[in-house]
Amino acid sequence: MTEPLVITVILNTNRRDDTLACLASLAKSSYVHHRIIVLDNASTDDSVAAIHAAFPEVQIVSLSANLGYAGNNNVGIVEALAQEAAWVFVLNEDTILAPDCLAEMVQLGESDPRIGIVGPMVYHYDEPKVIQSAGGTLSATWESRHIAQNEPDTGQFSQPRDVDWISGCAIMVRTAVIEQVGALDERFFYYWEETEWCLRASRAGWRICHVPVAKLWHKGVQRHYRPGPNVTYYSTRNRFLMMSKHRAPLKIWLAVWAQNLRTLASWTLKPRWRAMREHRDAMWQGTIDFLRRRWGMRTV
Question: Does residue 12 fall inside a structural domain?
C-alpha cells in the first residue's frame, strides 16, 4: 500500500539558522513519502543559498508580498495541492521534530476518513518535557486556549483525542478538507487563523485530533513569553472577525464586548496598568478596524 504524500510548508523570514535546524530534523524523519516547500519572505540573511546548499531537494518559493502567516502559507498550500498532496503540513521554521512525528500523525489521520486535521504534542524547546500545547480549546465566550500549557508531561495524555483546534506552529490538514472549506482566511493575517480554520473544518463535519505520541519542540512562545501590542491588536480584531464569520450568539458578543471594555477601562484609569498603554491603544485600534472592516497587516 502506497503511503499518502505529505507536503510540509515552512515559512522563512530571515530565520536561516532556525529553518536549517528544522529541515535537519525533518531529514531524519521515518516517514518517507514526504516533500518540503520553503516559502522565503524576502530574506536578506542568505537563507535561500544556505537552504539550497544544505538541502538541494527542498523546493523554495520566493514570495512577492508579505501577506502574513495566513496569506504567505496559502501560497505553499496551493502549491502542495497542485502536487497532489494527500496531507499538507503547515510548520513553523522554529520547530524541531522527533523522527517519528510525521509517521505518528499520518497513522492517526489515516485511521479514520473523518479525521481532517491533526497536530502533535508541542513542547517548549528550552524546557523539553514541558507542554506548550496539547491542542486547543474554545471557551464559552470563544476565548482560545492551549490545553495543558506550561504543564510538565507526566503521561496525562496517553491517547489521541478530539480538540477544538490545533496550534498553528504545526498543523497537518487533509487535502479533502482544504478542497471543501478552503485554505486559511487571509483577512486574519496573523493570529486566530488556525483556530478559525479548525472551526470551519469542524462545522463541515471533520474531526480535529491531537496526537500525543507525535512530538515536536517549538522555540517560540516560551513559558514566560509576554506578547507585544501587535498581538493585542490582532487578537482583538480577529476574535471579533471569527465571531462575525461564524455567527456567534448575541450572549457571546455581549460578554466579549463587556470583557474588552473592562480591560480598556483598567488600562486607561488605573495607575498600576500604566505600562499597558500601548496595549490599550492596540486594543482600541483592533476594535475600530474590525468595525471598519480593515483586515490584513496592522498599520500604525
Answer: yes
**Does residue 201 carry a pLDDT above 80?**
yes
Q: Which residue, of 186, 218, 250, is where some domain finishes?
A: 218
Whether residue 131 contacts residue 153, with contact meaning beta carbons closer than 8 Å, is answered with yes
Residue 262 included in any domain: yes
Its domain, for residue 160, covers 6-218
Same domain, 248 and 128: no
**Does 37 or 299 have the greater pLDDT score?**
37
Question: What local confidence, expressed as pLDDT, does residue 1 receive?
Answer: 59
Our count of domains for the chain comes to: 2
Q: Are residues 163 and 99 in the same domain?
A: yes
- Least Cα distance to 143 among 221, 238, 282, 247 occurs for 238
Are 21 and 165 found together in one domain? yes
pLDDT-derived band of residue 226, with 50, 70 and 90 as boundaries?
confident
What digits encode the pLDDT tens for the residues 255-287? 999 999 999 999 988 888 888 999 999 999 999
Q: For 104-124, what is the mean pLDDT?
A: 98
